[in-house]
Amino acid sequence: MQPAITTEPPHKSALSGWTTRRWLRTGVATTLVVLAVLGSLGGWAMWRTSHLTAALVDRRSPALIGAMRVEQALVNQETGIRGYGLSGRPDFLQPYAQGVTAERTSLRELRPLVGDDPRAAGDLADVERLAGTWQERIARPISAASPEEAMKLSAQRAAEGKSAFDSLRRAMARQQAHLQSVRAASARELRASETLRNWMFAVIAVVIVSVAVLVFEGLRRGVTGPLTRLGSDAREVAQGSFDRSLAGTGPADLRQLASDVESMRRRLVEELQFSEAARHQMDEQAEDLRRSNTELEQFAYVASHDLQEPLRKVSSFTQLLQRRYGGQLDAKADQYIAFAVDGANRMQTLINDLLAFSRVGRVHNDHQTVDLNAVMATALDNLSVAVEEAGAEITHDPLPTVVGDAAQLGMLWQNLLSNAVKFRSPDRLPRIHFGAVSDGGVCEFSVTDNGIGIASEFQERVFVLFQRLHTKDAYPGTGIGLAMCKKVVEFHGGTIGIDADYKLGTRVVFTLPVAVTSPVSPEREARA
């Protein structure tokens, strides 16, 4: 791109012949030099402030605090020794022992802190020398003596001990006074350094703001003006004016940008037209799908109604037989009539449940609290004839209470129990057990039988709709039982499968989320 030439009237400035690139180069070079100088000064000020702060925080203040701790430890020693020497009570030796430990710790921390200050190191040496003299002459002999001897020794060396400790006090006072003066001088020097640092940063901030203002003005005139116009046109397009063309002005790169945006606008117009046509097509398909679903629901209702009508007739006529000929026939006939009425009623209920199951996830979601023990009892009652004929032994663990669709869970239990009874081994009586193990918010159920089992290569296939492993003559059925079980379990957020490790029959394992956990009473366990 050719450099842009900034022209101004001749009377304004002699520098009007400079190009934008030359102005930028000169301005950037000058700014970088100034900022480099100011940055170096600011860095030096920061380094000095940091150095002084570290000296004050890490050495001067801790040294003064350490000297005070040494003094406190020696005073505690003197108090303990004086009390023990006057009273002969050994408990006064406890503050003395604590003071000795504290003195050693404080001296160990204080020595490296005053190593760079000869006077402070000399003061510390004087304190250690005088403290050692007092401890050697007074503290250690008295603390090691018996109470009677300690009292005598304390009285004999009272004047000497007072003189020695007074000298020690004066040495510690000199030491602390020197450390305080050094700390005060470091604080003053730190404040001066912080002031200098703040002035440096203020100057740097002013220079940066000035440069920013100059750069902003240059960019506004040479770049942002054309970009603002292009952005305004682009916003109009974004608001829906897709027929508005975008014309670029300014430098070549901005004109190229405007051309690219114009090409994008044309592509968007084409894509929008295509998307609009596709949306109309999808709306038509969605309407067809809704109409098809409505027709399927109507068909399901009509089919269920037509299935129930013959059952109503059977139930009605068997009830008429029961009322008219009840007592006139033998007990077996009455029992058969009762079985027929009950079977017709159960078939009507089952058809209604199948109709509701076909609408799972599409029409309704009838979730409520369901006691699985009651569901198990209902399933056993519905299949009581088949269970009795097969001589099956059925047991179950205490079952939890869950939130779900009672009809669907009843179908799940009834299908699993019916399969376990149907596919029994001819060589032994069927034994079926329903297990339940809770793990957090999920309960794992298992239905275990000692029947003919399922080969490993068919353990996935049995859950596919209308898949049968045996002929209808051998085992009657439609082949939708386990497929319905899978749909019910997955509808409730669980999983189902065949336990491949169980070889003594079949074990169906599935999970259901347990929302309500009810404690199992001992009576319920006994019944189970």
Structure, explained:
The protein has twelve helices and seven strands. It has a five-stranded mixed sheet with strand order 2-4-5-7-6. The protein has a two-stranded antiparallel ribbon with strand order 1-3. It has 528 residues and is an alpha+beta fold. Helix 1 (20-87) packs across helix 4 (147-156), helix 3 crosses helix 4 and helix 10 (406-422) packs antiparallel against helix 11 (481-491). The longest helix has 81 residues, at 158-238.
Can you tag this structure with a few keywords?
disordered C terminus; 528 residues; 12 helices; two-stranded antiparallel sheet; 5-stranded mixed sheet; 7 strands; disordered N terminus; alpha+beta
Average pLDDT, rounded to a whole number, is 75
Strand adjacency order, main sheet: 2-4-5-7-6
Give the N-terminus to C-terminus distance in angstroms: 90 Å
Radius of gyration: 49 Å
Overall geometry comes to: flat
- The parts where pLDDT drops under 50 for at least 5 residues are 1-14, 517-528
Please provide the count of β strands: 7
Number of helices: 12
Percentage of residues in helical conformation = 55-70%
Described by strand count, sense and barrel closure, the largest sheet is: 5 strands, mixed
How would you classify the helix and strand content by structural class?
alpha+beta
Order of SSEs: HHHHHHHEHHEEHEEHEEH
Strand content: 5-15%
